[in-house]
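For anyone still unconvinced, we reproduce a single protein record, the chain in one-letter code, the fold tokenised, and leave readers to judge:
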Amino acid sequence: MNRKAAALKKIENTITRQEVEALEAMRDAYEGLKRRLELLDRQIKTSESSIIQRLDDGVASESGMDLSIHEVTRRYPSWKSHFVAATSAEAAEKVLAETPPTITRSLVVRKAA
């Protein structure tokens, strides 16, 4: 290998300051976006909860949109199949019968036609 080829090979295998600084800038941008997304998620949940509560209280909507509350009740836990395998279906049914359901409520917004 001649000197020029060896020098080029060395450059290709060198990590430059610019490369590392670019990586750090991308990491900083990513962390900033994550923080902004977390803040936005909290704001959305707060706003949605407020609107749902006011709908529950009977407050009228002047939004011109159809607002409704979607409610899902879940009682089937992810651990049930493992519990049945370790004990019995009857034991699982007894535990489930005594377990209060998980209720998830979300706001549904439909634009008026």
Summary: The beta strands are 65-74, 102-111. The chain has a mean pLDDT of 88.
